[in-house]
Amino acid sequence: MPGIVLVGAQWGDEGKGKITDLIAHDFDFVVRFQGGNNAGHTVIHGDKKLALHLIPSGIMYPSVTPLIGNGCVIDPRVLIEEMDMLEGEGFSTERLLISGNAHLIMPYHLALDHESERRLGVNEIGTTKRGIGPAYQDKATRSGIRVQDLLDEHILRLKVQTALVEKNDLLTKIYGAEPFDAETICTDYLRYAQRLTPHITESSQLLNEALHEGKWVLFEGAQGTLLDIDHGTYPFVTSSSCTAGGAVIGSGVGPTTINKVLGIAKAYITRVGSGPFPTELSDEIGAKLGNVGSEFGTTTGRARRCGWYDAVIVKYAAQVNGLTDLCITKLDVLSCLETIKVCVAYEHEGRRYTTVPGSQSAFHHATPIYEELPGWQTDITGCRTFEELPRQARDYIEYIEELSGVQVSLIAVGPDRRQTITRGWQTR
Ligand code: GDP
Ligand code: IMO
Ligand code: MG
């Protein structure tokens, strides 16, 4: 079956946007299945560098139909801004499809995200403050407002008024914040509705028909495995299923339609926001990786925390996603180092872990056990085949491959689409 899932194998920002853009031309559809505009996927397409937050990274190819699936949460104001940005850059957004079952991020979700983080203080999750958690919360408590509600003014009004009874109490009485006015929200959202209506569709039906006809679908994950609500470092996670299983739930196709799962992992590791990070480097090497790798959030501009490649985490990602292939990105960034460490296990209270510890507190306090490998210290951004890479870089990739048990079939050596080494990856 012609469905391929692409997921982040670490804590996000692995380069999913670049790799989606690289392989998207082989597909008829590229589908976002979870998350919202907390994501920031950088795509360098020709001479243009674009940051996509909600719209699938395949939109630049006229032959690709981009689709935002039911598992996503959509801030319509941001979506329209992104559509305008793309149109301004010369990319048509006419083909964009949006599931009527996706949930809407409402202005009170943004306010609640801000307020709950403020209240947590030093214990904050470090969210992107885009209203993601509160929107998924409403979805789970069955009080959410969906994209299809934009198509019925009466229902939209009723739902906004009902929601505000509770949300305004929460905002004013618990958080001491300002209340929202239902009429103002409805006026804004009805204006967004006018723009978005031509794009709203029954996406599950459409995708199933397409798959049945033999069309190719790429499911573009956002965030990463360790940010998954079930399989990540809870509670320091996002509120959706970023792992491969989320692709089928978040788009309404069956698991039997998926024939490959491509995990994207950086040659080192980064994390934005709070939470455990065993291989974090708070020294000059971490700062160097951050500088050389330009590790600043695509969405919030925050500096990303940097650390050594953690093979325990990627092996875990291989398991929970059922990875068939691995893509290692940013290998070029490691050229700045004399020697490179890889975390092969953790130690906590005298016990050695070669898998992610089930206990959160063990993970929090885990001491990484490293193997040290020689660096290559030469520019590899021009390499286009595996054989062209220096021996130490090839050894590093082969070591990572051995530890994860998954073939490394793509290697990225620079942000440009052309700066990629294909090592056995075949879409079709
Ligand atoms: P995503 O969220 O997984 O799509 O990743 P982001 O776009 O947030 O962050 C990845 C960053 O690394 C972007 O700025 C990319 O342009 C850049 N990038 C991707 N692959 C490579 C690579 O192989 N080398 C270098 N130097 N930069 C890369
Ligand atoms: P892409 O798709 C990296 C992190 C936030 C925070 C946690 C919860 O670009 O890889 P949220 O706003 O989702 O409630 O925040 O998740 N986070 C990301 N980190 N890349 C992302 O997306 C992220 N999306 C959310 O920093 O720690
Ligand atoms: Mg990103």
Provide an overview of this structure:
The chain is of the alpha/beta class. It folds into 3 domains: about 160 residues, Adenylosuccinate Synthetase, subunit A, domain 1 (Adenylosuccinate Synthetase, Chain A, domain 1, 3-Layer(aba) Sandwich); about 90 residues, Adenylosuccinate Synthetase, subunit A, domain 2; about 160 residues, Adenylosuccinate Synthetase, subunit A, domain 3 (Adenylosuccinate Synthetase, Chain A, domain 3, Alpha-Beta Complex). About 30% of the residues lie in helices and about 20% in strands. The strands form 5 sheets. It has a 10-stranded mixed beta sheet, with helices on both faces. Strands 14, 16, 17 and 18 form a 4-stranded mixed beta sheet that branches. Strand 16 and strand 17 form a beta hairpin. Helix 3 crosses helix 4 and helix 3 runs parallel beside helix 5. The mean pLDDT is about 95. Bound molecules: guanosine-5'-diphosphate, 6-O-phosphoryl inosine monophosphate and magnesium ion. Guanosine-5'-diphosphate (GDP) binds next to helix 1 and strand 3.
